[in-house]
Known about the structure:
Blueprint: H1 17-27, H2 41-45, E1 53-57, E2 63-68, H3 74-87
Antiparallel strand pairs: 1-2
Amino acid sequence: MPISVVGQDARGGTPDADDALEFAEELELSFPVLADAEGEFWPVWNPDSVLPMATILDADGVVIWSEAGGSSGIEEMAEIVVSLLAAE
Length: 88
């Protein structure tokens, strides 16, 4: 089961590939980073424009957990991911 991480750099302005690379290097990110220069990605993943936003999808792409505006559910997220991985 693949695990994807989506991060948002909310410094403003229209992003480009150089911005994405700088963001990734600055935070030492180990996941792929893209620049949504056309603004097409953001509304799909965060239609309510709330940061931070965390979502877990199952192997069929169904949202099984979501939290907007905070990270209070990190333990719950870990339990869900572990259970999904065990089911594979």
